[in-house]
Each structure stands twice: as C-alpha cells, then as structure tokens.
Automatic annotation (TrEMBL):
InterPro entries per UniProt: Alkaline_phosphatase_core_sf (IPR017850), Sulfatase_N (IPR000917)
Organism for this UniProt entry: Thalassobaculum litoreum DSM 18839
Protein name: Arylsulfatase A
Domain Sulfatase N-terminal: 5-379
Gene3D superfamilies for this protein: Alkaline Phosphatase, subunit A (3.40.720.10)
C-alpha cells in the first residue's frame, strides 16, 4: 500500500439514515453498502448539520456548522475564506477530482459580475477539479442517453415522464421511465469513474469525490427497481392522526404543509404532499426504496472494479449523504424543519489497509467527515473546523471527550420572494431554527416563533410538543442553556487560538471541544 491512501468520498443525495438493510429495514435492499460496512465501520447515529443540498454539503466539505459557514439555502454563496476538504488535500499533493456536483454558489466578491457563475447554485466547491459535471439538468447524461438511442426529450425534466410518454402523471405512480437500469444517472456517473480510473497513468494516490444525485427526487426508477418493493408491504409514515392535528403543532409546520408541492417529488403531478392518500404515500415510499436499491447496485459495481484492479484495500472509502428525506413523516416529504427523518443520514467508513469491523452507536455529525479524511491523508485540520476525526473509532478507541448531543440548523428564509417572512410575520434573519437532540430530549429553538420540546423517551415519534408543559419547564430551560453554550463554544474560531503577544513569540493553541 502507498504511504498515503487513495480517497473515495461518495455522497448519495437525500439518502435517509435508516434505509440500510444492515440496520434491519424491512423493505430496503442494500447488500453492497452492507458489504462495504462489513469491511469498515457503520456509524448508526450520524446526523446532517443542515438542509437542503447546498447548506448540507457546505458542512460536509468545510467541517463547519451552518452558523459559521452561513450557506443558508441553495443559492447562498460559500465564503471564499473557508478552507474545504479539497483545499487542504491539495496541500499534501492530492488532486481532488469531482464526479457530479457540490452545489456551492461562488463568492460573488471573487468573480466578475458578468460571470455565468453568478446565476447558478450548482457551482463547484473551491479546489475540486471537475471530471464529469452532473447537475439536476443532467446534460451530459442526457447526451449519453441520446447516443445510446434513448430519447431524452426536448427539455431536461421530460425524461422523468412515465415510459417517456407525452403525458405527465396525474399523481403518485411506480411507472418506469424510458431509460433502463443500465442507463440511470448513477450508472452513467459510475461508468465515468471507472473509465477514469482505468485510464490513469502513474502510481500517485488519487482523491475522488463521487456525488450521486439519487435517491433525490423525482421519485422514479426503471425496471426492475420500480416494482422491487410492493406498496402494500410498506408501512405508513410516522405522523399525527390527521393533517389538522399535525398542522396545529407549530406555525412553521402549518406553513410548510400548505406549500410543499407534490410536483417537487413526482414530476408535474398536481397538488400538495399533505393531501396524499395512504395508497399514494405507500407508492412513493416503495419507489424510493427501489431507488436506494438501484444506487446500491452501482456502488457495488464500483467496489467490484476496485477489487478487480487491486486498489480496494489501498483506498479510504467514505459513503454518506448531504441530508435525509421525510418520506411522508409528519405529512411531509423532503428535507426541512426539525424532524429526524430529514437529518439522520448514513455514514460508512472503510479505511485503507487492514479492514476493521464494527458499528459505532454514539452520536457523530457530518462536520466530522472532513477532519476524518484529513487525518487519514496526513494534513492538519484547520483550527476553525467544528468537526473531529472519527479515525480513533475505527481502531476501537474512544476519545477522552466526545459530544453528547446532535445539533442541526435549518434556515427557511425565501430571499428572493420573501414568502416565508410575509406568511409567518418574521424579518428575514429570524427565519431559522436550531435543534439539539440527545437520546432523551429534542429541543428546537426558533428565532421568532415558539420553541418545541419532545420527550423522546416517552414520545420517540415527536408527536407531542411539551414546550409549554409546566412539568417540563426546567427541562426546556436546561436544553436552551445547552444550546446557547454549544453556540458559544463553536462560533468562528479562525484566529481565536492565536496569541501574538505570548512570551517567546506567537502562540497557536487548538481548542478543546470537551463534551459539547
């Protein structure tokens, strides 16, 4: 094995954290991800820091909480001052190569006002070289399909219509698209990765970030995956007894339920997701599980190639996601709010060298991924990073101190339209929430709306808000204080560890994160 490992970072967009057969899910089939976990460590209590895609990926690649990187929504620029996994890997000789996308809008202060990068959010995080760009419009994939004789349609999203027909769906469905199982975006991108690795010259270690779009909506998948799971076998989601009861929980929840369109999940289908009947919800969930099986098959294809080439053992492999998917929980789909389904995500880490085996059931976070890879490749972690390396866990070690709660943030401002501000009566910068969650309680703090408190020991499905319950007054205060302490400890510390007046010259001391 090389002194430095190859690095393969795979992200599977909108992959819900409980959707691995290794975790006992009754419907999903993930034999290849399970096998990869068997050669490494499966982190079972892993959480995203924010949503949707751009914020979630900003935390993944910078190791920063949202309160520090401040990418609040798709389209918010990533400040150029923040180091990323790619900028740091280049310092030790890697050439980080991107297949797919990172969804990072460019810092407008660093580019021309007339640059086309000023108009997109699907930009590339600093210092990634791009091999195969693949955003939601799927341009290269659609061109590849056309070359294979599959008609991709006359506009990007038409490819998602059932069987490639002219009529859009009228609602939830499991009809396949015009392309086959060997022609999915995931298959196309996996093929490009394999071609690149097959054609590489030299023996220097490589660094690839393979960013797959699925199982992100639209929820459609070709045969045989579209019928792999029968809707009748799928459980209904976690939710209140009625839509009205669910909406009554909180003003933001009512706002989201009244605006989340089905067309965001089933292309061109009319209506709201909150109005779906039970059969439709089961159908969408079954298709999503089929999409996971399709992605799993392509992960297996790439792992088989690495083994065939003799590089599997020399490669650090990390598989994770940017955020989860509510999948009908609480009468919602997508990634928003504070519920677990939108933030619990998978994490599998297979080290280079001798395999390790195990599961880690303590709380880990997306900000830990960048420091983990950095330690593995021998590059110093920037002092501002909030995350911590997970490598000790791969060797059966427990750090002296570790966090005892997960934290995430969600910003629901609508910068262009102002819709959220008008509907909820909030100023722009008050359209945000922060969540602290441990094994017993979840506390959600809103800047301009009432808080939420859930007793997870008695109410694991988050159906009973106890924030105004007198019996929980002290618990609410304690978790609000814990959240305030967390924010104080982890706010931007780019230069806070320096002392230029210290005896003997400038001093730099790394922070001790303690139990936060």
């Amino acid at each position: 094995m090389s002194l430095r490992p190859n690095v393969l970072l795979i992200t599977l967009d909108q992959f819900r954290g409980d959707c691995l057969s290794a975790l006992g899910h009754p419907n999903v089939r993930t034999p290849h991800l399970d096998a990869l976990a068997g050669d490494g460590v499966l982190f079972t209590d892993h959480w995203a820091q924010c949503a949707p895609c751009s914020p979630g990926r900003a935390s993944l690649l910078t190791g920063l909480y949202q309160m520090n990187h401040r990418v609040l929504r798709n389209g918010t620029p990533l400040d150029r001052r923040h180091p990323t996994l790619a900028t740091e890997a280049r310092k030790v000789g890697y050439d980080p190569m991107l297949f797919g996308y990172t969804d990072q809008s460019a810092d407008p202060r660093a580019i021309s006002p007339t640059s086309p990068r000023m108009r997109i959010y699907e930009g590339v995080a600093p210092d990634f070289a791009v091999h195969t760009p693949l955003g939601e419009d799927g341009t290269l994939w659609r061109q590849w399909l056309a070359g294979r004789g599959t008609d991709p349609g006359d506009e990007p999203k038409r490819i998602w219509r059932p069987n490639g027909g002219d009529l859009p769906p009228t609602g939830a469905h499991a009809e396949p698209p015009a392309f086959g199982a060997e022609e999915t975006e995931t298959a196309f991108l996996t093929g490009r990765v394999i071609e690149h690795l097959r054609d590489r010259d030299g023996s220097d270690p490589w660094f690839l970030h393979v960013s797959h779009l699925r199982p992100h909506p639209p929820f459609v998948v070709p045969e045989p995956y579209n019928t792999m799971v029968a809707p009748a076998d799928v459980a209904l989601p976690i939710r209140a007894a009625s839509r009205a009861d669910q909406a009554a929980m909180h003003p933001y929840l009512r706002y989201a339920m009244e605006r989340t369109a089905l067309s965001s999940f089933v292309y061109e289908a009319p209506g709201l997701v909150a109005d779906l009947d039970d059969d439709s919800v089961r159908t969408i969930r079954a298709v999503y599980y089929g999409m996971i099986a399709e992605v799993d098959a392509q992960v297996g294809r790439l792992m088989a190639f690495l083994k065939e080439r003799g590089t599997y053992d020399d490669t650090l492999i990390v598989v994770t996601s940017d955020h989860g998917e509510l999948l009908g929980d609480h009468h919602l789909f997508g990634k928003l709010g504070w519920f677990d389904g939108a933030y619990r995500i998978p994490l599998i880490v297979k080290p280079a060298g001798s395999p390790v085996f195990g599961r880690v059931d303590i709380i880990t976070e997306a900000v830990d991924v960048a420091p983990t890879i950095m330690q593995a490749i021998g590059v110093a972690r920037p002092p501002a990073m909030n995350g911590r390396s997970l490598l000790p866990f791969l060797h059966g070690e427990m750090p002296d101190t570790w966090r005892n709660a997960a934290h995430w943030e969600f910003d629901f401002r609508e910068t262009a339209s102002g819709e959220a501000e008008r509907a909820l009566g909030l100023p722009l910068d008050a359209c945000q929430l922060t969540t602290i969650r441990d094994d017993r309680y979840k506390y959600v703090h809103f800047s301009g709306l009432p808080p939420l408190l859930f007793d997870l020991g008695r109410d694991p499905h988050e159906l009973d808000n106890r924030a105004d319950d007198e019996d929980y007054r002290d618990i609410r205060a304690m978790y609000a204080e814990r959240m305030l302490s967390w924010r104080a400890v982890h706010q931007d510390r780019t230069l806070t560890g320096w002392d230029l007046t210290a005896p003997g010259g400038p001093l730099h001391r790394s922070p001790d994160r303690g139990q936060w």
